[in-house]
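Subject: Sanity check before I submit

Could someone independently write out the structure tokens for this chain? I want to compare against mine line by line before I put it in a report. The sequence has 307 residues.
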Amino acid sequence: MKLRKLNLKQSNKISKIALYALLTFIAFTIADLTIIYFRDLMIPNQAPPKKMVRVTPPAFLDRSQFSTITSRNLFSSSGVMPEAITARKSAEGQKDAEPIASQLPLNLIGTMVHSNPAKSIAAIEVKSKNLTGSYSPGAEVEGLAKIEKVERNIVYIRNANTGALEYIELNKASNKVSFDASKNAPAVSNGAKEVVSTGNNTFQIKRSDLLKYTNDLSSVLMQARAVPNRDPNTGEINGFRILDMQPGSIYEQLGLKPMDVLKGVNGEPIDSVQKAMEMYNTLKNGNQVNLQIERGGKNDTFKYDVK
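---
Independent answer below. Compare away.
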């Protein structure tokens, strides 16, 4: 086949088309190279933000949904809610205030002041519960108060309800030993003593004198006044505390003193009125009597030989 020779016009047209094609190729090549160069810069280096999912709350809320808040206790990492600031200030103000006379149903029966203040003892009657006990500083008095300090004829307490510092005093008029004149109590000897001291906490007594007292129990009981002594921790009777005694009485001759606690006889505890009466009757036939007492917070034994 024989090609036809192109004229000038056709040749110029083909040249223009070839030039346009070359320019288009060059443009696309430059564009690709540019994209390849800037492609890494155009890729995002962070993940797109998450879309917030809108949750429609239920019409009725369950209390368990708030358990996380209460269990975490945002106000205290230890899990203990602190006391109110106003309450603390009020308590501090009462603590520093001057003690006032207590209106609690407490009656001070007697005090024994020790050289060590922690060992001082106060005999207190709780009138609302009709019981009497012995208490040292720091002891709780039937949930009503706490003993702060024991002094002669006065006890300072902390009111358990208000936290205020209060005091109770010994009413001397109401705590005197009253003797029944209608009964014929044995006269207290002024000179001769029926009980003779033979050593340190050891005594000697004639059997005839012992029988004289054991056979007239009512008269002997009039020579002193004692109340049940209760353990501050358990509230149980652990003896009987002598509050007061008649000068020169048999109790004084036996070496006893006010505020002593009679705790046992011959190793047997005296923890009830019935037990005290039983022990009292056993003294009639014994040749030796050992009396366990508590004095000033210490336990001791008094020995009596019956001749």
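---
OP: Matches mine. For the report I'm noting this point. Helices lie at 8-42, 67-72, 85-96, 207-214, 217-221, 250-253, 273-282.
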